[in-house]
Design a protein that fits this description.
6 helices; two-stranded antiparallel ribbon; mainly alpha; Arc Repressor Mutant, subunit A; 2 strands
Length: 126
């Protein structure tokens, strides 16, 4: 948890962790309905509705009608939203690269093995 909190501090200071996470989900999963985004982020539908309204106001996402069901509305990243997401990732990656650069080869090997195990645990829990 401490690592997660520290990495959260490295997100774009102008945007909250929730904003960056939502932009990341939209980037990874393509256009989503608000319900799909709520499920992806583990948030309530009302919370995602508020978040999406703010993202729309800032031009980070846009709405589009679902091509197969015109009653549904999907949201997707705008070029500005993609830029914010990329900048946030660049900051976090730079932070991690700097920290990893202080480790010796054996420590890096240990982290690599641990990361594989952690990913396996997380992916099989679904």
């Amino acid at each position: 948890m401490r690592t997660v909190r520290r990495l959260r501090k490295e997100t774009d200071g102008e945007h909250s962790v929730s904003v960056i996470a939502a932009l990341g989900s939209l980037n990874s999963h393509g256009p989503l309905t608000l319900s799909e985004l709520a499920d992806a982020e583990g948030m309530s539908r009302p919370s995602v509705t508020v978040l999406a309204a703010a993202l729309l106001d800032h031009g980070l996402i846009a709405k589009e009608a679902d091509p197969s069901d015109r009653r549904l509305v999907r949201i997707h990243l705008t070029p500005s939203g993609k830029r914010v997401l990329d900048q946030s990732r660049t900051r976090r990656n730079a932070f991690l690269a700097k920290r990893l650069g202080t480790l010796n080869v054996e420590e890096l090997r240990t982290l690599d093995r641990a990361a594989s195990i952690l990913l396996r645990l997380v992916e099989t829990s679904r």
